[in-house]
Amino acid sequence: EVQLVESGGDLVQSGRSLRLSCAASGFTFGDYGMHWVRQAPGKGLEWVSGISWNSETLIYADSVKGRFTISRDDAENSLHLQMNSLRPEDTALYYCARRMKNNVAFDIWGQGTMVTVSS
Amino acid sequence: ESVLTQSPGTLSLSPGERAILSCRASQSVSDTYLAWYQQKPGQAPRLLIYAASSRATGIPDRFSGSGSGTDFTLTISRLEPEDFAVYYCQHYGSSPPWTFGQGTKVEIK
């Protein structure tokens, strides 16, 4: 079964750091670009960051640029998001998502991990 | 920056009725880069449609997508009880690369 499982979410104070992880299984992880998408409580979806299949391209939303770092470990079939200088507005459910091979849409999503930043 | 505006915000319909959801882009987009997702409460989004009109794997044929340029539509031909959810359109562009609309909630009338 194709699956993504996020972990690492927590309640942290503003200005602190957190590292999210996403464990992939059921597919050849190294063949796919991977992304993080977040959803603040009661709000819509916001794309956060993405990494190409070969790690050559890393991209970030302006709202997190310079604070968040995306990475992947193909040997461990895992995706990570290092989140520094966290702000209350970063409070959200963070999903990892797989980009389709032949399109830019996200065809597989995890269930999300919750990050809460207190002021 | 391309902005996606979905309408209506909420659609109140009965099972068996047809649902027509709109997604309008602030500037012309390639239909290759337009997708639709369904999200039920407490669940992750699920890809329904990619490239404006291609159904994702396992998606029933009552879901269809159409449109081009700045106007795109998701149609659910006959609503099933499990179709009541929030629907998002998504576009791939330049800045930011991936943008979502604000969502349309399809609720039971």
Run of helices and strands of chain B: EEEEEEEEEE
Report the average pLDDT across residues of chain B: 96
Oligomeric grouping of the chains? heterodimer
Instruction: Give the low-confidence spans of chain B.
Output: none
Radius of gyration of chain B equals 13 Å
Radius of gyration of chain A: 13 Å
What gross morphology of chain A would you assign?
globular
End-to-end CA span of chain A: 40 Å
Number of strands of chain B: 10
Largest protein interface? A-B, 21 and 27 residues
Helix content of chain B: under 10%
Class inferred from helices and paired strands of chain A: mainly beta
The major sheet of chain B is characterized as: 7 strands, mixed
**First-last Cα distance of chain B:** 36 Å
Number of helices of chain B: 0
User: Which band does the percent of strand residues of chain B land in?
Assistant: over 45%
Main beta-sheet strand count, sense and barrel state of chain A: 7 strands, mixed
Strand content of chain A: over 45%
What's the total helix number of chain A? 0
